[in-house]
Amino acid sequence: MIRKHFAGFAASALALAVSAQAFAGTVTTDGADIMIKTKGGLEVATTDKQFSFKVGGRLQADYSQFDGFYTVNGDSADAAYFRRAFIEIGGVAFTDWKYQFNYDLSHNAGSSEDGYWDEASIQYGGFNPVNIKVGRFDPDFGLEKATSSKWVTALERNAAYDMIDWANGHQNGLGLQVNGTAGPSLYGSVGIHAKDQNDVDGDSVKQFNARGVFAPMHEAGNVLHFGVNFAQRDLDDVGGLDTRIRSRLGMRGVSTAGGNDAGTNGNRLTIAGANNLPAGSYGEDTAWGLEAAWAMGPLSVQGEYIKRELEADSSAYQDIDSKGYYAQVAYTITGEARDYKLGRFDAIKPSNKQIGAWEVFYRYDYIEGDHDVVGITPTSTVEGKVHNLGLNWYANDNVRVSGAYVKAKVDNAQNADGDDDGDGVVFRAQYVF
Where, by residue number, does the polypeptide cross the bilayer (predicted)? Predict the structure, then answer.
């Protein structure tokens, strides 16, 4: 029976590809009917919703130009690169099992040793509304991180996330997460991840994450959202430790994969920490976060506050404390509201397919940390401040074109030429399917 279903799917998919038609249809079989959709990727599903299979992806091509603090010598540099080039395969098996495999052809996710996976996970939903997820996926921490990279408002997520790349960013290893809802307004998740980084005994670093969301208003154009986040890991006996907290300050082109970047002339801000530290230098690493958002019609406002504490295990080192936040306001000129699903924002879908949807936004990022030097008490607080002003054009449900002006200012730090501020522009053409 299953063979007949998939044989029918293969023949139908091939016929659709050859004829280049973009219609949804139903294929009758001796079992459950198969429904094929070609709008926004290729999706095949049984009408009883027991099985589905979808092939999709996203392509983000970026170009940026920047100067001042963003380069070592202060001169202008540029970068042209694929920010993301994902192939995505996902679906449902036997109603309760979901799977998702996202592979990054631009090599900005994962690594050469473990594969360039953005996600490779299986989720069981038979205990509805509770789900159990296992595999490689990003830990749950923060509103902007929960929102897909396809639909975050600015081209890059806020600079405060650079402080906690371990808490919600791409890292190899495997994780187990339990998530679910309690009514239409409450969402929560807890997870544990075993990362590739090992201690001197070969024991992997374990990380715990928890997130809770309360959204008494949770419809597109009518959102009130509050969230709290927590993450912790233990770095005892980890050798070759990198405690540096570095930020690109909103300009990915200073250092990235997927194409050309600024190379050795690209400059990042270091607000604290050092690299290649011996085992026993640091122990418990903890991050907290608060998030809030409000939306009414085409207007949305959101922000997050994050604090991180890294405790020294040796008198030769100092505790590392850092904090950061961002505040963002966005307005859709053409009147569309940003979609919202419990715990995250989603796409803006243009109501007028001729002119698309046009959105303007402004975001202010702030980060700070004690600039600790091995064996020396910190004497200064390094700060980074970033202004992001941009425009998004959602030409249709698949194409988005974006541009932004980024202005950075740092305190108690500078590049080799003495610059403590920098300017840049970045443009992106995105296609999702």
Answer: none
